Amino acid sequence: MKKTIYFMVLCLSAHGIPRSCFAQEYLTKNGRVSFFSKATLENITADNNQVVSLLNTQTGDFKFYLLVNAFHFPKAMMEQHFNSDYMESDKYSSSAFKGTIAEINKIDITKDGSYNVSVSGSLELHGVTKTMTTTGTIIIKNGKLSAISVFKILLKDFNIKIPSVVINNISEQIEITVNCQYEKRATN
């Protein structure tokens, strides 16, 4: 587990924000990404609590990284099909988002408050990278920073195929929820 988190932090650092901006960086190693699929026979949900995310409150740069096989389902068979049949997690082991929060300068991180934001960037999933814009909320409470966003994606946009035998049981649109509680990143 520690090796996985270290690897994800290393990946974010290698492709990320310059180290000179650490004073404005907030980090989580246990953010949460969940998804929901409304289905005819049974709704499908899964959670991943091993999400690494980095937010720079000076530049608005925002990113997260997760391992696909870290999603957990209520039923073991769902998890197995998700990893082998849909996400092909042996081939496409990770997913990432890299983007920017618009008008980050309007957020006062020294005062409690809730700020609606717009985030634009690129989502890499199942070997496909798509640009997207979505909304979210940044919450400052008692000096702590958290970010929440709910958005929808279409499986076909990321070349995720639904086997014909279950085509009527799985929604082509998936709702993704991102929920991260950040800590200020220590300076070197």
Structure description:
By secondary structure, the protein is mostly beta strands. Helices cover 13% and strands 48% of the residues. It has an eight-stranded antiparallel barrel with strand order 1-2-3-4-5-6-7-8. A hairpin with a 2-residue loop joins strand 5 and strand 6 (128-141). The longest helix is centred in the first third of the chain and has 13 residues, at 2-14. The two termini are 24 Å apart. Residues 1-22 have low confidence and may be disordered.
Brief rundown of the structure:
With 188 residues, the protein is mainly beta. It has 2 helices and 8 strands, in the order αβββαβββββ.
**Radius of gyration, taken over Cα atoms and rounded to an integer in Å:** 17 Å
Cross-sheet strand order for the largest sheet: 1-2-3-4-5-6-7-8
Q: What's the shape?
A: elongated
Number of strands: 8
Mean pLDDT: 87
Unreliable sequence segments:
1-22
What is the secondary structure topology, with strand pairs?
Blueprint: H1 2-14, E1 25-37, E2 44-56, E3 61-67, H2 76-86, E4 94-101, E5 113-125, E6 128-141, E7 144-154, E8 173-184
Antiparallel strand pairs: 1-2, 1-8, 2-3, 3-4, 4-5, 5-6, 6-7, 7-8
Question: Can you give keywords for this protein?
Answer:
188 residues; single chain; 8 strands; disordered N terminus; 8-stranded antiparallel barrel
